[in-house]
Design brief:
Number of domains: 5
Shape: globular
CATH superfamily of the largest domain: P-loop containing nucleotide triphosphate hydrolases
Number of strands: 27
CATH class of the largest domain: Alpha Beta
Distance between the termini: 66 Å
Strand order of the largest sheet: 7-8-6-9-10-5-11
Strand content: 15-25%
Radius of gyration: 27 Å
CATH topology of the largest domain: Rossmann fold
Largest sheet: 7 strands, parallel
Bound molecules: adenosine-5'-diphosphate, zinc ion
Structural class: alpha/beta
Amino acid sequence: MSEAPPSRRVRVAVEAPQHSGLTGPLDYLGPQDLTPGTLVHVTLGRRDVMGLVWDDLAEGQDLPEDERLPESELRPVGEALDALPPLSDRWRRLVEFAASYYQRSIGELALAVLPPQLRDLDAKQLQARLKKLDKADAAAATQAAAAPITPADRPALTAQQQAALDAVLELAGREAPQPALLWGLTGSGKTEIYLRAAEAALERGQQVLVLVPEINLTPQLEARFAERFAGHAIVSLHSGLTPAQRLRHWLAAHLGRAQLVLGTRLAVFASMPRLGLIVVDEEHDPSYKQQDGARYSARDLAVYRGHLEKVPVLLGSATPSLESWQHALGGRYRRIDLTERIGGGALPRVRLFDMNRLERKKGVTTTLSVPLLDALRKRLDRGEQSLVFLNRRGYAPVLHCDQCNWKSDCPHCSAHQVFHKEDRTLRCHHCGVSARVPRACPSCGNPDIAPLGRGTERLEEQLALALPGARVARIDADTTKLKGSLESQLAAVHEGDVDILVGTQMVAKGHDFRRITLVAAVNPDGALFSSDFRAPERLFSLLMQAGGRAGRDAAQAAASEMWVQTWYPEHALYQSLQKHDYEAFASSQLHERMSANLPPFAHLALVRAEGRSVEAARDFLTAAQEAAQALPLSLGLLLYPPVPMAVARVADSERFQMLIEAGSRAQLQRFLRAWLPELHALKRRQKGLTRWAVDVDPLAI
Ligand code: ADP
Ligand code: ZN
Ligand code: ZN
């Protein structure tokens, strides 16, 4: 009989959530030759779980020597999935960094970013999967060696584009490339630069990762890449894939077979052994920030990954985030500008329509002002399309009784239930609860309850009434619930089957509409006075993006207009918008941020707490604050008092938050590392507290 192979202490990252108190990888006993990055089955408690063999020492995550179990008490690792090449050192460094920066456990993050199906496989099943993949690849290889791309396949670059591409290629040739911010209007040819830079990376035999903010935008970009790189292996990675597709695509990337990986934020963790370029399209978009679990920013992690892998990161936007803009101003990022629209297309003329000058008549709706209706009618007569943009779905934000002042409040949230006329429901957009519209006021019996305000559904109805014969269509989260419905609705717009498109931010982003010559924002003022300091930044980029939908076709550019109906036409934001002057807007915002000591000049973390009572949530944060003040590391930090969140109650949960402000990232990180263990302990003592979470670099305050 042969002797058992020599074994050693092996560290394995398992999915133990941080609040279990287990932060680092756990110790097991395994064979000497077990390579870090290998997937293994292990027992955790009484469960068989998937784990990932980690390195011997993960910095700062290790238990002190005396808390480690002696080898005699360690459990052996189970079956190893060693048919799969190990996840690389660099991949593990990325996960380690993200876990530490966003204050999660390594195992939780590492397992969460792997395809869910992978976690359920045993070694035999994995081998079967890999064999199947080999077969499919072999079959594909017999048809479709990738044809090299020839100049005939692609447009000749403009002088500006050529300069931009040269700059990107120059970076790619460096030992440690600096991230680049590609700043260019919509339609200025940024995507063409992504394609050319990708082409160069593919020619070097490297893989390319392209991130897009919205799942809805992946098919469009995928089509453009597929057309250019016919015969190349392109896969997508996003949450809309079936588990089987996601595993297949992930494996293709991990095995180095997929040359291009396109995906949403989760794709930033795709394992790609020959990564040569990362593109982050619309880098300013809030959807790059994960809003639960590990609240990571895929944009920021992409930059870190580029630094780790020594590959260029191309951040593209017409309205960069102020963080990225500031990095470009300071020289940390290389700025590359595209200032002209391709083919002479111009940006639409922006008209600020002063709502104060409208004659106000009782009972007459002002949202669709007479001049706006005239402008829409003109487009109709010429057979051109218009886009009317309102960032609020539903028919009306609230139903109201003017006898007793009853409002359609959500019984579970501190918010109104939104009136949806189509299915006669009142729906809460926070907790999702839905009820039939009452026949009469539930409080006084008045049969005459009326909608207050306006959402896209009502706007659509009013437009159809005001412009008889016009083909009005609406695209928002309500009209696109069914799989494929967004695609078919967009196709109708492209085909010219729609005269007026009404929609939320969903239609403002990315789509390459060719026939639109008028974009109208009917009620954008709300964001000017939001308590969230990022609201103006979001509004500006949304309006620039919405405006960018018009005039993409050069022949129509001259007639293109954007209408902004506002009560504050003199506001600096609108003044910059009118001149399409992102630089002026950014400079005024940065100035404000600097004097108010807000990001990017300060670094924030937000702790949120939810409880069954106001006291539970608030007392937890008050205790947390006291614990913070007792820490010497909190010196020099600003600890704001706990306050209710903007929507304080959701689904019967009371929600509070507390903001921490630091002058430097490092200072904030050191403090959080010392403080959070105390919060885990506090949580166990606080009755009625249901959840708490920390959000580093929060987007919405
Ligand atoms: P952006 O990504 O900045 O919105 P795109 O790359 O999509 O811009 O370019 C806008 C349009 O112009 C696209 O239809 C694209 O195919 C086309 N285009 C881009 N570069 C050129 C070029 N050099 N010559 C001709 N057409 C181009
Ligand atoms: Zn009433
Ligand atoms: Zn609710």
